[in-house]
UniProtKB/TrEMBL annotation:
Its main location: plastid. PROSITE patterns: RIBOSOMAL_L33. One of its GO terms (cellular component) is ribosome. SUPFAM superfamilies: Zn-binding ribosomal proteins. Belongs to the bacterial ribosomal protein bL33 family. One of its GO terms (biological process) is translation. InterPro entries: Ribosomal_bL33, Ribosomal_bL33_CS, Ribosomal_bL33_sf, Ribosomal_zn-bd. It is found in: Plastid, Chloroplast. It comes from the Eukaryota. Keywords: Chloroplast, Plastid, Ribonucleoprotein, Ribosomal protein. This is Large ribosomal subunit protein bL33c.
Amino acid sequence: MAKGKDVRVTVILECTNCVRNGLNKESRGLSRYITQKNRHNTPSRLELRKFCRYCYKHTIHGEIKK
């Protein structure tokens, strides 16, 4: 049997604080994490609090499109 869409998908989480500030001169880049999510359990966009090494604090990282 052919399999349908994969249930577990790979997603990229990006720091919302760095993006909102427009990569100011103090920031050296964007903090991104790669993780997986279950499409059936979390159909909406994923948001997690992760450590941003450019902001030097824990911020909300949101799912972005590939």
